[in-house]
Structure formats: structure tokens, C-alpha cells
Amino acid sequence: MAFDIDRYTANSKPVAWGDLDLDSFHDNPLPPESLRTLRYMCDVEYHTVCYLRDLLTTPSHNEPEVGAFMTMWNREEFWHGEALAAVLAKHGIVVDFDELAATRIKLGWKDRLDPIKQSLLGGLVGNDFVAVHMSWGAANEWSANSAYLRMAKLEKHPVLAELLKRIAAQETKHVAFYASQARDRLAKSKKAQVITRFALSRFWAPVGSGISTDEEVTHVMGHLFRGTEGRKLVRDVDSHIAKLPGMEGLTIVETALDARGIAADGPSTPVAVAA
Questions:
Q1: Which residue, among 233, 211, 220, has the nearest Cα to 45 in the 3D structure?
Q2: N-term to C-term CA, the chain
Q3: pLDDT one-digit tens code per residue, 198-218
């Protein structure tokens, strides 16, 4: 089923969290390892707003549906960052968006688009570039959706779990757009398939890799996806990516975990639940 961009843009709204009792974190605070992961997620969501500026210089900007989606997508991602920042604030952790934005400006393309920009050296233009962009976005959003749902299950804090499920519901819509666009565009171009496969297999890394230290990336990936249950979720993400035209057999997320030495066997990371 084709993605209804008009319906999406008409119904786009901030993730709701005003009805949630954030004061409950005072008596039932999150453990340090969970706060560390939430801070990482918040940083990634906030950086997405700055990311739009770079996209305006690419062929994706010339596509009306893609441009309309990216505008709403960026707003929703920013709101996700705001909601996560509110949770962190209840734990005395202040996230300064202006500081993050300044960091992003210094990074330029490095956080999400640098690998795609490198693909341009191969003569990638028009539809072929957008196919890579959409496939890259689909991989990121599948990963993000899985991460939020996993965090909600691991932590078990009722307020946090509800908030993360609401964020994941919006991420599901983002996945639907990116994946539908990727399938259609890849199916039309063997060249796009070849270059997309090359870009994903050679350059893809967990979202946030370019804006956080390797230590932080490894912590988050291990916290969320260590052990047999976590590895199953990662393989599910890879299976979605592998179903895109020309992407058969790719295991980019599992490969990224293996490269960081994150255990595939044994129990998942234990998360302390405050009394």
C-alpha cells in the first residue's frame, strides 16, 4: 500500500507527554545505565533538526513528497527530543539544544549523510541518490523503532514505557514512508541497487555514531541488544532491510554489533527497576 503523504502531513502532531506523570521519576528514578541510553537517544533526536539543513542541498529536496515528509519528520523528531529531555530533566540532567546544534554545525555531514555524500563520488544523481537516502533512512528508522520498544520493555518503568511506545508509534510511520520510497526507487534502478548496497554494507553505522563517542555507542547498543533476545530483534531489523530490492543477505546491524564485541548469546542486559 502506497504511503499517504497528504494524510501524514495533515495529521502530524507532537508526541503527547503532557498527560504523563513525570514527577513519578522523583520517587522511582531510572538507573544510571538507562539515563545514559536516554541521553544518547535525546541527542540523536535533537540533531535531526539540524540534519534537515544538509538535506536541502541534495536531490531529495527536489522531490515534493520527500520534501513534505522531511519537514514533518524533522518536527516530530525534535518533539521526541523534547519529551526525552523532560524525562532527563527530572533526573537533574539538562540537555542544551543550542549546544547540541553548535556541535552539529561543526560536524557538517559527518553524523548521518557523510556516507551518502561519499556515494555521490560515484555519479549518483536524481532518483538514484534519493533511493540511497530512502534506504538509509529506512535502516535508521527500523533500528530506532526497535530501540525504543526494547528500552520500554527492559526498563519497565510505567511512565517511561508509555512515552517510549508513543514515540515508537510515530517512528513506525517514518519507517513506512522511507521503506515504501526505498522499495519503489530501488525496483526502478539496478544502478541504485548496486550503489545502495555498497553504501549500506561499507558505511552504515548505528544512528548517532557520528555525534557520540565509540564508548557511548557501544554502551547503548549493548544495553539494548546484548544477549539472545536483543540479537533476535537486531536480526529482525536486518531481515526488513534485506527485503528491499537488491539488498538480499545484508546484515548491517548485526555486523555492527559484532564489530563492537556485543555478545549474541546469554541473558539480556539486566536493568535495575527502582522500588
A1: 211
A2: 45
A3: 889 988 999 888 778 899 999
Residue 161 exposed, middle or buried by CB count within 10 Å (0-12, 13-18, 19+) = middle
pLDDT digits (tens, 9 = 90+) for 2-39: 899 999 999 999 999 999 999 999 999 999 999 999 99
139: exposed, middle or buried (Cβ count in 10 Å: 0-12, 13-18, 19+): buried
The predicted model scores a pTM of 0.88
Cβ 203 vs Cβ 60: under 8 Å: no
Give the list of residues 6+ apart from residue 231 with CB closer than 8 angstroms, or none.
225, 254, 257, 264, 265
DSSP 188: T
pLDDT digit string, tens, across residues 84-119: 999 999 999 998 777 766 665 565 544 455 555 544
Transcribe 228-273 into DSSP letters.
HHHHHHHHHHHHHHHTSTT-TT--HHHHHHHHTT---SSPPPP---
Domains of the chain (ranges plus CATH)?
Answer: 28-112+121-259 (1.10.620.20)
Distance CA 56, CA 67 (A): 9
Cβ neighbors of 221 (< 8 A, separation 6 or more) are 206, 256, 257, 260, 262
Q: What is the CA radius of gyration of the chain?
A: 18
What are the Cα distances from residue 88, in Å, to 30, 42, 136?
A: 9, 9, 29
Helices (H), 61-188: 64-89, 97-107, 114-119, 126-155, 158-187
Tell me the DSSP string of 30-86. Answer: PPHHHHHHHHHHHHHHHHHHHHHHHHTTSGGGG-HHHHHHHHHHHHHHHHHHHHHHH
